[in-house]
């Protein structure tokens, strides 16, 4: 138990634990970084940091989630859902909904 606590403490101090915890189910990379660090798109809270916006899993299809965030942040250069990146065709289709 003591070793586990020491390990978690070491991870938190190194920043590795924090960056792993901040990764979302969805990751959207807008071409232009949003002005605010958080936004609501499709009734989902998105947190943006370092040019990437993340959100928890939704009940909508991944393509719908992409279209919802594009309507708020504009064209995306990348979008992933559960670690799987949208291919070029899927991303282009999503970007047609950009504001």
Automatic annotation (TrEMBL):
This is Uncharacterized protein. Keywords: Signal. It comes from the Bacteria. Residues 1-23 form the signal peptide.
